[in-house]
Design goal:
The structure holds three protein chains of three kinds.
Chain A lengths: L2 H6 L4 E9 L9 E9 L5 H11 L19 E4 L2 E4 L5 H4 L3 E5 L5 E4 L2 E3 L1 H9 L9 H5 L4 E2 L3 H8 L9 H5 L1 H5 L6 H12 L6 H8 L13 H5 L6 H16 L11 E2 L22
Parallel strand pairs in A: 1-5
Antiparallel strand pairs in A: 1-2, 3-4, 3-5, 6-7, 8-9
Helix pairs in contact in A: 4-9, 6-9, 9-12
Chain B lengths: L2 H27 L1 H6 L12 H9 L1 H27 L5 H36 L1
Chain C lengths: L13 H4 L6 H28 L17 H28 L17 H34 L1
Classes of the chains: A alpha+beta, B mainly alpha, C mainly alpha.
């Protein structure tokens, strides 16, 4: 008996999908439509949506790409919780009924497609890139920017963010205040400020410590609860607050920007270390 | 002063209130319990006129009340401003709310300080 | 570029109460706001009432307007609100100054976040608040009995 036979005999459960649909050209407001889907164990919400599109409603629209939880495209509200559709198994969160809606706190463009441009603008405004004053070195590097393992650990967790927007959807401040920067941009501001290669705290502090910055976070913690990558944005925002508090007392010294480290001079190369292979591609 | 500085003061004020208002609550509402423990002097109500006048005459109490009034007004009204300004209101309206709350705070601080000093001088004079 | 049509999808005030499946910290945040407003309302009136004693008016004395059971109950509720707000506020100071949230750690599924790290602190603060409220309740019941 093949393994495939066992799979084919798996029990299917019928789950009713309540999908929030909205076509701006036709509808005045979003409404729910129901579809009955036969669900096998292990089937994700993304697969369920594909079945609906294939069999029932070809006009259903949503964003997806990698189908494995790394691109951040398929964030949506599943049974009241913002999460990724591709790595949520239907039977993990529903037995008979599943409500699928677009991420809250974003404008809906169509069906399950939110307008994330506001989030990306806020992200950009906090300069989420390494800020240094040695442009020549960055363009034509002569050495390396040394970082110890401990220094990397201090910000590594926050680099796993896939910008899916689930944290922004869960935040209670963003529910009423559209101008709040939000957990993702502030966590990324912390990520870059903590990075010892960066020297940009002063450039980010006006916005991060401004009217729409960290002062609007009250540690409801929902962002960390819903984050599909374990980035813990709530912690990231509190770390940014700590930097701003220390700065208030004039006690904050940003560790970066770290110096350029060149190869040591007057030192002989260990003969056991092999040389790199010949280049095969013309520069 | 930027927002995160105001917020830092708000948090520090909160800590100070924890101590001072905690003490105030203890004196006002837990003194009966202290009497059961044999700690307080008598089970007479903390808000009786005699006790009230005794506190008024004491300059330490008066000074502490004024400090508590200031930090509590700042903390409370800044908190209210946070709640109102997080409702997604227009910029102009937010500024107006800020100014109104500041005026309210200054007004109440003035009233409370005047009252505290007046009763202190009266009670201390009579003592 | 053609104007994009959209539907506004913000949760509004309801988002303070429910934006997804809740954790205890979300409830704690909402209750913190409610108790803060309650204590503030009382406080603003309290300043005015106690300032009147400069004019010789002691509204809380025997026979005066505020010496009624309903106001005593109200005062207890303010006391309870303060107890909750104070202990939760202490927890928030420890968290928001970056102490009680732990360090940045490599996330390993199932993910544990700073919420897990601070949960014992939340439990401790709630216990402390409950104890203070219980102590206060005893006192208020005595005072209520004395009022009749």
């Amino acid at each position: 008996m093949h393994k495939g036979d066992a799979m084919a005999e798996q029990k299917t459960t019928q789950v009713t999908f309540h999908v929030r649909k909205y076509d701006p050209m036709k509808d005045s407001a979003p409404h729910y439509e129901t579809f009955k889907v036969d669900v096998k164990p292990g089937m994700t919400v993304l697969e369920g949506l594909h079945i609906i599109k294939e069999k029932y409603d070809q006009t259903l629209a949503w964003r997806y790409s990698c189908r494995m939880g790394v691109c951040g495209s398929c964030g949506m509200l599943l049974n009241g919780r913002p999460t990724l559709a591709c790595n949520t198994q239907i039977l993990d969160i529903a037995t008979t009924d599943l409500t699928v809606a677009p991420l809250p706190n974003f404008k809906i463009l169509r069906d399950l497609v939110p307008d994330l441009s506001g989030m990306f603008e806020k992200h950009r405004s906090l300069k989420p890139y390494i800020l240094r004053d040695d442009a020549e070195e960055m363009e034509n590097p002569t050495g390396e920017y040394y970082q110890s393992h401990e220094e990397v650990e201090e910000y590594l967790q926050f680099t796993y963010c896939i910008k899916c927007g689930c944290c922004m959807a869960a935040c209670p401040t963003l529910a009423t205040d559209p101008d709040y920067l939000g957990p993702m941009p502030l966590t990324q501001a912390n990520r870059y400020t903590t990075d010892t290669r960066d020297g940009g705290f002063k450039e980010r502090k006006a916005l991060a410590g401004g009217r729409n910055g960290v002062a609007r976070c009250h540690y409801a913690g929902e962002c960390s609860r819903v984050c599909p990558k374990g980035v813990d944005p709530a912690k990231g925002v509190q770390f940014m607050k700590r930097k701003l508090v220390l700065d208030f007392f004039k006690l904050y010294n940003q560790k970066g920007p770290c110096k350029v480290q060149h190869a040591p001079e007057g030192v002989e190369r260990n003969p056991k270390i092999p040389y790199p292979p010949e280049k095969t591609v013309e520069q | 002063m930027n927002e995160s500085s105001k917020w830092t003061i708000h948090m520090l004020a909160g800590l100070l209130i924890f101590l001072l208002l905690g003490m105030h609550m203890g004196i006002m509402h837990l003194s009966g319990f202290k009497a059961d423990l044999g700690v307080a002097d008598g089970a007479e109500s903390a808000v009786s006129k005699d006790n009230s006048l005794a506190r008024d005459a004491n300059p330490l109490f008066t000074a502490t009340y004024i400090v508590l009034l200031a930090v509590a007004l700042y903390h409370g009204l800044y908190g209210l401003k946070n709640i109102l300004c997080e409702l997604g209101l227009k910029e102009g309206l937010q500024k107006t709310i800020g100014v109104l709350l500041l005026l309210l705070g200054l007004g109440l601080f003035g009233l409370g300080t005047w009252a505290a000093i007046t009763v202190h001088l009266t009670a201390a004079g009579n003592a | 570029m053609a104007e994009t049509k959209y539907h506004d999808n913000r949760l509004g005030i309801w988002g303070w109460f429910a934006g997804g499946r809740w954790g205890p910290e979300r409830y704690a945040y909402t209750l913190h706001r409610i108790t803060g407003l309650a204590v503030l309302c009382y406080f603003l009136m309290h300043i005015v009432v106690t300032s009147l004693r400069a004019k010789g008016i002691y509204l809380w004395e025997d026979g005066e307007f505020l010496h009624q059971p309903i106001f005593l109950v109200g005062e207890f509720l303010v006391f309870a609100a303060f107890a909750y707000h104070a202990f939760n506020g202490l927890r928030l100071v420890l968290i928001e100054f970056g102490w009680a949230v732990g360090k940045a750690e490599d996330p390993v599924y199932p993910y544990k976040s700073s919420l897990n790290k601070q949960r014992p602190l939340l439990a401790l603060m709630m216990l402390a608040a409950a104890m203070v409220i219980a102590l206060g309740a005893q006192e208020f019941i005595h005072a209520l009995g004395g009022m009749h």
